[in-house]
């Protein structure tokens, strides 16, 4: 069996659903169910005996060790994290707790388990750490894309905490010989994306007649990858990656934020036109910038392509259309997600932005 952490979040739940669709191997899914974790994402596998869901914290050493032993885990894929940059600016502590201390405790549990395995199981074991391109910092307009050897220059509490976790994972390989793999991926989008992030937030605000908030001048660039392409890359690295190596994952889809939002508006205008016949683009509103806002991320994914043969299936145009269609077809999912604490987060993040 494999152990997935954070498998009720956006990327983790897509990964679990796909894994169970393409593999016979069962999954233990350890997730704390923070505001970002949602069991509705996993409703289709709720009665599947190959999916064992455990509510718990990756920082709980005893629980993690117990699960590793009980289910004779042969690989861990660590998605669990606090993942939203704006939340890390308002309150960094949870990011240190989960992303740094949590990863450390999980590594300790894995090391204790892995050390006592027989030689064959020991060499076949893998700890795959899912990380982000944000650890590399910000690029200028004409800089080459991030490669795996780019200097770490994290700029937000979120990216600093992910950078710390990457360093711990690396150290556990170099010091203890733990067979680790690390992936650093660009911005994901697709089904089950929590509507605090740019794409799902703007789809939902558009449909409910609210402003589409663009930070600063909207010319910040992100490199977008459809979530199922990320999941496929993780499966590829898990199966064929060289132990101790880092693989960058990206979609070769650099877009300015304002262009992403205009594209969303154009697709919505076509699929679900506004009642007054005007474009959703009329709702675009420039607001105060994110403090320390990284200007540009761009991933050079050629190592993963060259060494392991992975390539994304979706272009931005196909992926974004599928995403908008998914949200239009899953308004019940959104309605559940945006109740409760979500409203107080929106108030906290956007109230002081001088719309
Ligand atoms: P998410 O916020 O949607 O989900 C995170 C999940 O982790 C949630 O289910 C949450 O309940 C769980 N979790 C949080 N703290 C936990 C803890 N202490 N113990 C157990 N579970 C806990 O995040 P996501 O967007 O799906 O990102 C998943 C991973 O991928 C993260 O490590 C993130 O840094 C990385 N990543 C994300 C992106 C992106 O664009 N979203 C890109 C590159 C890398
Ligand atoms: O690059 C990978 C990272 O991508 C992941 O590691 C993070 O977990 C993930 O959240 C994402 O980080 P970003 O900060 O790039 O994503 P977000 O959707 O929050 O913002 C995308 C861009 O849009 C960014 O430049 C900020 C901007 N933005 C965001 C929001 C929420 C706006 O202009 N307005 C908004 O309301």
List the helices and strands and how they pair.
Layout: E1 2-5, H1 10-22, E2 27-31, E3 51-55, H2 61-70, E4 75-78, H3 85-90, H4 93-115, H5 119-124, E5 126-132, H6 157-176, E6 180-185, E7 187-189, H7 198-207, E8 212-215, E9 221-226, H8 227-240, E10 246-249, E11 254-256, H9 257-271, E12 284-287, H10 302-308, H11 316-329, H12 331-337, H13 341-350
Helix pairs in contact: 1-8, 2-4, 4-6, 7-9, 9-11
Bound molecules: nicotinamide-adenine-dinucleotide and 2'deoxy-thymidine-5'-diphospho-alpha-D-glucose.
Nicotinamide-adenine-dinucleotide (NAD) binds at residues 5-6, 8-12, 30-34, 36-37, 57-59, 79-83, 98, 102, 130, 132, 162, 185, 187-188, 194.
Short description, anyone?
The protein is of the alpha/beta class.
Characterization of the model:
- The protein has 355 residues and is α/β, with parallel strands linked by helices.
- The protein has a domain at 2-193 and 226-253 and 293-315: NAD(P)-binding Rossmann-like Domain (Rossmann fold), CATH 3.40.50.
- 44% of the residues lie in helices and 15% in strands.
- The chain is built from 13 helices and 12 strands.
- The protein has helices at 10-22, 61-70, 85-90, 93-115, 119-124, 157-176, 198-207, 227-240, 257-271, 302-308, 316-329, 331-337, 341-350, and strands at 2-5, 27-31, 51-55, 75-78, 126-132, 180-185, 187-189, 212-215, 221-226, 246-249, 254-256, 284-287.
- The strands form 3 sheets. The protein has a 7-stranded parallel β-sheet with strand order 3-2-1-4-5-6-10, sandwiched between helices. The chain has a 3-stranded mixed β-sheet with strand order 7-9-11. A two-stranded parallel ribbon has the order 8-12.
- Strand 5, helix 6 and strand 6 form a beta-alpha-beta unit.
- The N and C termini lie far apart (50 Å).
- The model has no long low-confidence stretch (mean pLDDT 97).
- Nicotinamide-adenine-dinucleotide (NAD) is lined by residues 5-6, 8-12, 30-34, 36-37, 57-59, 79-83, 98, 102, 130, 132, 162, 185, 187-188, 194.
- 2'deoxy-thymidine-5'-diphospho-alpha-D-glucose binds at residues 83-85, 132-134, 186-187, 197-198, 201, 213-215, 220, 222, 257, 290, 297.
């Amino acid at each position: 069996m494999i152990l997935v952490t954070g498998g009720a979040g956006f990327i983790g739940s897509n990964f679990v659903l796909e894994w169970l669709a393409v593999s016979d191997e069962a999954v233990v899914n350890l997730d704390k169910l923070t505001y970002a974790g949602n069991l509705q994402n996993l409703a289709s596998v709720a009665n599947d005996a190959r999916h064992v869901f455990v509510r718990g914290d990756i920082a709980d050493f005893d629980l993690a060790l117990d699960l590793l032993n009980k289910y004779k885990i042969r690989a861990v894929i660590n998605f669990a994290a606090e993942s939203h940059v704006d939340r890390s600016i308002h309150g960094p502590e949870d990011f240190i707790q989960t992303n740094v201390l949590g990863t450390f405790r999980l590594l300790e549990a894995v090391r204790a388990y892995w050390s006592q395995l027989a030689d064959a199981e020991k060499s076949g074991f893998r700890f795959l750490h899912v990380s982000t391109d944000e650890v590399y910092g910000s690029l200028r307009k004409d800089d080459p894309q991030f490669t795996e050897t780019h200097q770490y220059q994290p700029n937000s509490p979120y990216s600093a905490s992910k950078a710390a976790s990457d360093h711990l994972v690396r150290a556990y390989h170099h010091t203890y010989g733990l067979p680790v793999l690390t992936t650093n991926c660009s911005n994901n989008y697709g089904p089950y994306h929590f509507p605090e992030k740019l794409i799902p937030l703007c789809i939902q605000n558009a449909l409910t007649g609210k402003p589409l908030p663009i930070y600063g001048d909207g010319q910040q660039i992100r490199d977008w990858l459809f979530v199922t392409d990320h999941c496929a890359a993780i499966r590829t690295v898990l199966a064929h990656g060289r132990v101790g190596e880092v693989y960058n994952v990206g979609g070769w889809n650099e877009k300015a934020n304002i262009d992403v939002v205009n594209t969303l508006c154009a697709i919505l205008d076509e699929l679900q036109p506004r009642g007054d016949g005007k474009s959703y683009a009329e709702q675009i509103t420039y607001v105060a910038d994110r403090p320390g806002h990284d200007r540009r991320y761009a991933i050079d994914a050629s190592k993963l392509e060259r060494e392991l043969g992975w390539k994304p299936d979706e272009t931005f145009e196909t992926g974004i259309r599928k995403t908008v269609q998914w949200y239009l077809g899953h308004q019940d999912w959104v309605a559940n997600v945006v109740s409760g604490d979500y409203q107080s987060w929106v108030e906290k993040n956007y109230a002081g932005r001088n719309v």
